[in-house]
Amino acid sequence: MSVLNHPFYAEAAHPLTPQARLAELAAAYPELHPVIASNPACYPGLLAWMREHGTLAPVAEQQAVAQQPVELPVEQPNPFGSTTVKTRPALGKKPLLIGGAIALVVLLVGGGTWAYAAISSKLGGASTPQAAVEKLLNGAADLDPLSVYGALSPAEVESFQASFEKLGELTTEAPDGAQVNYQKQLEEMMSLTQVSLDGLRFEVEEIDDEIAAVAVTGGELRVDADPEKLADAYFEMMKPQLIAQYTEWGFSDEEIEDVVDEARSSAVDGLADTFPYSLTAGEIGEEIGHDPTIIAVKEGNSWYVSPLLTMGELMYQSRGTGQPRGTLVAKAETFATPEEALDGFAQGAVEYLNTGEPAALARSLPLAERRLLSLYGEAAGLGQGLSLEVADVSASSVKAGDIARIELENLAISGGSGYRAWSVEVSGVCAQANGSSPACLDDVPLLDKLGAVDLQLIAVKQSSGWFVSPVRTVSDAAAIVMDNLVTLSNRGELEDLLASN
């Protein structure tokens, strides 16, 4: 089987794949070593480990792309052992850069959201579930982020507004000292792309009075772009990171220039092979085993697309268990304070894990998460067979309007599974299991620089009281990370951070 057809090829080549996952792939699939070695996210320690295991070097020699490792003053830990390795990656003929054409398309879609979500208001919605889905898809085809944003559930999208705002501020410094704004570069890339969407057909299934599944049964997407112009816009944005990364690895200016030129050439070739690109609803259906389905929800008097429920539906259909999805959204509990909401959330989570019944946890969540767990919590197959209890919950909160930041002073859970008993205690950003020494997020230098010490749980106030919001908590964490990235960027330290991790 060609490595291009390997089920994990795309993950091994994509530079946004976490380094720990690359290490797992390298350990499990030696045939992917050349792909992983060409990934910019492959760090020196992993590269050296692959060479030591003999599968990388012969391929590299056959292709005449490998060079002997050179010692650098910076040590990086080898995840497969206790030793440290001093090395640098091989200089390839065609280094893969950010997953080639696929990642460029992903950046275009993601970039549109970054660029506009923060400035758009909650635009309208639609009169029917099908109209909401049509608005979303046509807005995406028109590369109109305002229409896309306006088609999405306000209860869900507002949770991510803070992180979108910070993404819009992210900049880096070009080799000539000029500031490169990611938002503007992504907008330029969008302007260079032509997208059309024709022949849409739908089937609508009512799940609940205010929830509907809209299956896309027909339609064709076409995407085209000038490979040279699109690659130029992309490299304008990514070149500072590349230069910093390869400088950290010990390459000379001449070698780095060769790397960038070869990477751009590779990206142009990949884009030329990709565009014009077309995809039909039928092809998607064949790939995933069912018609692509988007979930719409009614909020107020209008219908919107629910990203959370759409992801839940995709996972539900992919499991293929035959177990029906839930139909009725659980009725919310009433919590008078953020602290009471945290206690209710902890108790509900433990009951869900013990019994597999999602209602107890769903009742303690705000609307968006409550819908998700009510419909798909039981089908997820979590829980049962555990015997857990909440031993202690203590916290304090600071309110700002309908948002509260919760400082977790102590959360203790004890119990077991089968014959094994254990306990976990969490305080702030530190946790300890079975009485061991605490492990803290801010003990990791990278996480410390990105603001781990400031991470807190977020509660929101809705009509019936306060609720701990996992989605808003994740969004707040992303905003903190983005804020620190922006600060590092403005100080000129972002490239060094990216290069050294």
List the helices and strands and how they pair.
Layout: H1 9-13, H2 19-28, H3 33-38, H4 44-52, H5 56-62, E1 76-77, E2 84-85, H6 100-116, H7 129-141, H8 145-151, H9 154-157, H10 161-168, E3 171-173, E4 179-181, H11 182-191, E5 193-208, E6 211-225, H12 227-248, H13 253-274, E7 277-280, H14 281-288, E8 293-299, E9 302-305, H15 307-319, H16 338-355, H17 359-362, H18 367-376, E10 386-400, E11 403-417, E12 420-427, E13 430-433, E14 439-440, H19 445-449, E15 457-462, E16 465-468, H20 470-490, H21 494-500
Antiparallel strand pairs: 1-2, 3-4, 5-6, 6-7, 6-8, 8-9, 10-11, 11-12, 11-15, 12-13, 13-14, 15-16
Q: How big a fraction of the residues is strand?
A: 15-25%
Distance between the termini: 33 Å
Specify Rg, calculated over alpha carbons.
Answer: 25 Å
Q: How many distinct folded domains?
A: 3
Look at the helices and sheets and give the structural class.
Answer: alpha+beta
Low-confidence stretches: 57-122
- Large-scale geometry: globular
Multimeric status of the protein: single chain
Helical content stands at 40-55%
Mean pLDDT: 77
Alpha plus pi helix count: 21
Biggest sheet architecture = 7 strands, antiparallel
Task: State the total count of DSSP E strands.
Answer: 16
Transmembrane segments: 96-117
Protein name: Leucine rich repeat variant domain-containing protein
Keywords: Membrane, Transmembrane, Transmembrane helix
Pfam families: LRV_2 (PF25591)
